[in-house]
Amino acid sequence: MPIYDYRCEKCEELWEESLPMSKMNSPTKKACPHCEKSGCVVKHVGGFPGVATDQTLTADKKSGGQWSELMSRMTNVVGRDYKSQPRQSLRENRNSLEGLNYYK
Fold first, then answer.
1. pLDDT at residue 72 above 90?
2. CA-to-CA distance for 52 and 74, rounded, in angstroms?
3. Which of 61, 77, 98, 102 is least surrounded, with the fewest CB atoms within 10 Å of its CB?
4. What band does 3 get if pLDDT is binned at 50, 70 and 90?
5. Is residue 102 in a domain?
6. DSSP codes of every residue in 7-26
7. Pairing relationship of beta strands 14-18 and 3-8 according to DSSP bridges
8. Domain range for residue 12?
9. Which of 5-19, 21-35, 72-86 has the lowest mean pLDDT?
10. Total structural domains in the chain?
């Protein structure tokens, strides 16, 4: 169930309630649970919950530097213009990339 934020316009108290979507407006019709005055409860729009993420995470950081090594080896073996090469030569070049275990 979603969590909704509510605020009393009289006492300025904030609180949250976990309600089904069909009842999200029901607290606005009731009295404030803190000051018990009616007609002053409104839905409060605050910030959105944050998700903790590492903004500095890169492919190299996750793989311990192997990502750059893999990309460098692929570029050296396949070449920058890989679409112009025949499919057979791409298969042959794949063997030279073996030994680099990117997925540990």
1. no
2. 33
3. 98
4. confident
5. no
6. EETTT--EEEEE--GGGTTG
7. antiparallel
8. 3-43
9. 72-86
10. 2
Contact indicator for 32, 40 with CB cutoff of 8 Å: yes
Report the largest interatomic distance among the alpha carbons of the chain, rounded to a whole angstrom.
79
Specify burial of residue 34 (Cβ count, 10 A radius: 0-12, 13-18, 19+): middle
The DSSP result for 82-98, as a single string, is: GGGS-HHHHHHHHGGGT
Q: Of 22-31, 71-80, 89-98, where does mean pLDDT reach its minimum? A: 89-98
Cα-based distances in Å from 58 to 51, 61, 75, 85: 18, 5, 19, 30
Integer CA distances (angstroms), 12 to 4, 16, 28, 39, 46, in order:
16, 13, 14, 13, 14
Q: Looking at the domain assignment, is residue 48 inside a domain? A: no
DSSP state of 4: E
Query: Is the full-model pTM beyond 0.85?
Result: no
Asked whether the beta carbons of 25 and 43 are under 8 A apart, the reply is: yes
